[in-house]
Amino acid sequence: MKDDVLKTLIGEEELKERVRELGEQITRDYQGKNLLLVSVLKGSIAFMADLMRAIDLPLSIDFMAVSSYGAGVKTSGVVKIIKDLDIDLKGYDLLIVEDILDSGMTLSYIMEMLEAREPSSVKICTLLDKPERRQVSVAPAYVGFTVPDEFVIGYGLDYDEKYRNLPYIGVLKPEVYTK
Ligand SMILES: O=P(O)(O)OC[C@H]1O[C@H](OP(=O)(O)OP(=O)(O)O)[C@H](O)[C@@H]1O
Ligand code: HPA
Which domain holds residue 83? Predict the structure, then answer.
């Protein structure tokens, strides 16, 4: 698996430290609120598992699964809902937990869909932001790291459903997806 990684972009210790900082910030910002973390599967699993334990509040969690990339490195532009949330959102302060904000198609679609269900508030926490690729404007409240325009894998992020278990964020060798 390591042979397919061109370079490490964000190492394990750096990830851990930044997640801890985000958790502290969210803990401060959501005092007295009814926080519901919405994990967008599958990419956000590692981040969600670590972030929720870094937040010192009696929060709730729920999951939705969407997909727009299929087996490639470019968005299809069509966001498919594979699994919807279970919880009625009224009265909750939602924080959408994502692994990466790239074209913005996925998060703008999810934001609109969840806002229509009239929760108390909806904000975004994304581990990675790749602003050079943006097609639709999306404003995340929390960003872990800004990354360059390269296809990244690991810590939940996949290429063709693989590499999610890499414990750090790496750049995939272009020959893996061009072969
Ligand atoms: O800003 P965008 O260009 O829309 O890209 C971001 C989305 O792409 C990835 O999901 P993917 O569709 O690959 O599904 P996955 O989470 O199951 O990997 C990622 O997890 C985000 O949800
Ligand atoms: O760079 C990326 N890597 C993995 N999944 C993604 N989904 C959007 N951008 C990416």
Answer: 13-150
* Residues of the chain scoring pLDDT < 50: none
Distances (CA, A) of 14 to 5, 25, 48: 18, 17, 16
Ligand 2 pocket by C-beta < 6 Å: which residues? 69, 100, 102, 151-153, 157-158
Question: Could you tell me the CATH number of the domain that includes residue 43?
Answer: 3.40.50.2020
> Given 102, 129, 149, 158, which residue is catalytic?
102
Task: Name the token pair of 16.
Answer: 């851990």
- Minimum-distance ligand 1 atom for the alpha carbon of 75: 3
Question: What is the value of pTM for the model shown?
Answer: 0.96
Is 34 within the bounds of a domain? yes
Instruction: Say how many domains are in the chain.
Output: 1
40-81 pLDDT, tens digit per residue, is: 999 999 999 999 999 999 999 999 999 887 777 787 778 889
Quick check: 64 and 101 in contact, CB under 8 A? no
Is 102 designated active site?
yes
Q: Output the pLDDT for position 52.
A: 98
